[in-house]
Amino acid sequence: MTTLITGANGGLGLGIARYFLEKEPDAKIWLGVRANRTNADALAAEFSGRCVLVDLEVTSKDSWEAAVATITEADGRLDVLVNNAGLHRDHLLATMPDEAWSSVIAANLDSVFLGCRAVIRPMMLNRFGRIINIASLSAILPPLGQTNYAAAKAGVVALTQTLAKEVARSGITVNAVLPGYIQTEALAHMDEEAAKRAKAGIPMRRFGTPAEVAAAVRFLACHDAAYVTGSALKIDGGIF
Amino acid sequence: MAQGEELRSKIKEVMVEELMLDFDAAEIADQTAIFGAGGLGLDSVDALQLVVAIEKHFGLKIADAEKAKGVLQSVETIAQAIETKG
Known about the structure:
CATH topology of chain A: Rossmann fold
Distance between the termini of chain B: 13 Å
Mean pLDDT of chain B: 91
Helix content of chain B: 40-55%
Number of strands of chain B: 0
Low-confidence stretches of chain A: none
Order of helices and strands of chain A: EHEHEHEHEHEHHE
CATH class of chain A: Alpha Beta
Number of helices of chain B: 4
Structural class of chain B: mainly alpha
Number of helices of chain A: 7
Helix content of chain A: 40-55%
Largest interface: A-B, 9 and 10 residues
Strand content of chain B: under 5%
Shape of chain A: globular
Radius of gyration of chain B: 12 Å
Distance between the termini of chain A: 34 Å
Oligomer: heterodimer
Structural class of chain A: alpha/beta
């Protein structure tokens, strides 16, 4: 299976890519990256031939078209898209700069729209496709300071459910996963006291790992998950 | 490339197979409306799949919605578009 993972230089994207590469001997993984690509380069070197970088600015229609063309010309198909790229810029709404709103909506929601639209045609031609959108627990349990991020991720869930209906007859499934606290660079800024408080609010009393999100993504990407579409799967240690 | 009756039959087979229609290809008349009441009753989602299927099986690329509206009226209009393409 040929898979494209966006935001592939970050902890979660890398974790998903590594999981696929280790668990699926015939997996071909394309890592969508921008300027920062040190970690992705290292993974591609480790899995030479099965893991390749592709330039992708997820907020650009042209960049998406070029990346998808590169992949389909090289492999003749694109089976799985994992829309993982995203960012957050937390502010209380009353003091949120315009740019913090628009950049978060663009990186988290526009990117998913553009990515889905770019891959639909090649997936329809093959009558097979798996789109997995990485949303967030913030979509349904938004914390203070994330009106931009929570709105974008809730939009991703709604987009996922709508698109799932539109392409269901074409052999394409579209699902979202909603990670809670996952051990990536996004949590690196959290001090020990804040981490302790956060864990106290998680029934499992621990943060999740990228591999635990990747396992869910791998299931949604597999052939056997053909009847699962439009779902929003929480991966959060039991928070609700 | 098939033409005439053979092409029209092939289009009907592709429609039934690709759109998973619940009737036989032979039941579709060349002039039957693809969309709307009194026709095959297909919807916009079927239209999207049909555009891709026509490209895949017959090499006809339907680039925009306006062109699709003209081509996707009946098996006959699809066949004519394929027969006259570039």
